[in-house]
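Progress report, Aim 2. The chain analyzed during this reporting quarter is listed below.
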Amino acid sequence: MNYTLTKPCDQCPFLIGSGFTARSLDAHSSGEFACHKTCTLDEDGDGTYQPRKKSPHCAGALIYLEKREKPHQMMRICARLGMYDPSKLDMLAPVR
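Predicted structure tokens for the chain:
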């Protein structure tokens, strides 16, 4: 997973008014969470998304975590390795 997205998409579950609860957003953001637009629906019909090999991390989730000063471990590792730059995130995006 890469950390190149800087702005949430217009259908991001982390946007204010998306209808997702704080509890579900906390669960989704607890680890790597691929942008749903780059995933495929699981073929068994349960409606879950499966990330592709090169799916980027959801920018909304990154912003959500950075606003709370709670980046997950992989975010911190990628930042130290120069693979993620939190200063490039659009922190003015309407993310919860």
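The mean pLDDT is 90. The longest strand covers residues 39-41. These observations will guide the mutagenesis work planned for the next reporting period.
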